[in-house]
Amino acid sequence: MLITGTGGGMGRVAAMVFAREGAKVVGCDIQAEANNETVEMVRQAGGEMTGIAPINLTDPEQVQRLVEEAVAAYGGLDVVYNNAAMQRFGPMPEFSIEDWRTTITGELDIPFFVSKYAWPHLVQRGGGVIINVGSVAGMIAGETPPMVAHCAAKAGVIGLTRQLALEGAKHGIRAVTISSGPVLTPASDRDLGDNQAARDAITSKTLLKRFGQPEEIVELAAFLASDRAAYITGANYAVDGGASAW
Ligand SMILES: NC(=O)c1ccc[n+]([C@@H]2O[C@H](COP(=O)([O-])OP(=O)(O)OC[C@H]3O[C@@H](n4cnc5c(N)ncnc54)[C@H](O)[C@@H]3O)[C@@H](O)[C@H]2O)c1
Questions:
Q1: How far is the CA of 170 from the centre of ligand 1 (A)?
Q2: Which residue among 37, 148, 157, 223 has the highest number of C-beta atoms inside a 10 angstrom radius?
Q3: What pLDDT does 191 receive?
Q4: Does the beta carbon of 83 sit less than 6 angstroms from any atom of ligand 1?
Q5: Ligand 1 atom index nearest CA of 58
Q6: What per-residue confidence (pLDDT) applies to 187?
Q7: How confident is the prediction for the chain on average, in pLDDT?
Q8: Is residue 3 in contact with ligand 1, taking CB distance under 6 Å?
Q9: Ligand 1 in contact with 2 (CB < 6 A)?
Q10: What digits encode the pLDDT tens for the residues 139-158?
């Protein structure tokens, strides 16, 4: 399987969890050192992982090479976990054209590029699963932080997934979205810094009044990638502590 963005956050945890489940994991990231750390962690825990880094997933040529290397590493590809993303936040109308393009590229181009180049390999194998990481922001507007491009891009991910499911069904390819609520990862922790008011605003929008842990997202991915989820495709799952329920 291929997981993008395994240098930290949910991608690193995904590598650990899927390797624990017996998957042969290919993980990639733009941050080579951090990705190597993940490879070490997985191997020390007894799992199987190959790291490919640094790789910039916004560059389609690099993505094409990545997919070919991933296929070669274990002789095929059955699961693609589109976890990696890069986004910017800010209020309208200060949000610049560059902020917009960076976010759309970082959140929507990446899963499309990876899915595009993985697709023929999944077809060749007789099917597989594409897991795309959306966000609660793809379903409802978000106040903290202001997130116009993030909302648009993650709604795009949900739409992308539905279409991949439609076109993939006849090939045995399932596609699903996991729409994460606020999760404490190194990235979100760093972005929020000591802004306690922002942290409180975010957790108060959840029903459970807390951030999620990466494991709480990734465990669903492990289920969705398995044959136990064989009848699930095209669907979008909120794992958001209830943030989208009200
Ligand atoms: N953390 C949250 O609160 C939250 C909420 C909703 C959705 N999400 C989504 O969950 C996913 C994982 O989020 P996270 O918080 O673990 O993120 P993160 O920033 O901690 O990790 C993302 C990883 O992707 C890598 N990456 C980013 N751009 C890349 C590129 N161009 N090429 C290669 N690698 C690149 C980063 O280096 C990083 O290691 C993302 O799709 C994110 O949008 C996160």
A1: 31
A2: 157
A3: 84
A4: yes
A5: 31
A6: 84
A7: 97
A8: no
A9: no
A10: 999 999 999 999 999 999 99
Ligand 1 touching residue 55 (CB < 6 A): yes
pTM: 0.98
* Contact assessment for residue 107 and residue 150, using Cβ atoms and an 8 Å cutoff: yes
One DSSP character per residue, the chain reads -EEE-TTSHHHHHHHHHHHHTT-EEEEE-S-HHHHHHHHHHHHHTT-EEEEE-S--TTSHHHHHHHHHHHHHHHT---EEEE-------B-TTTS-HHHHHHHHIIIIIHHHHHHHHHHHHHHHHT-EEEEEEEEGGGTS--TTTTBHHHHHHHHHHHHHHHHHHHHHGGGTEEEEEEEE--B--HHHHHHHTT-HHHHHHHHHHSSS-SPBPHHHHHHHHHHHHSGGGTT--S-EEEESTTGGG-
Give mean pLDDT in consecutive 10-residue pieces for the chain, a chain of 246 residues: 98 98 98 98 98 98 98 98 97 97 98 98 98 98 96 98 99 99 92 93 97 98 98 98 98
Nearest CA to ligand 1 atom 43: 85
144 CB under 6 A from ligand 1? no
Q: Is the CB of 11 under 6 A from ligand 1?
A: yes
The length of the chain is 246
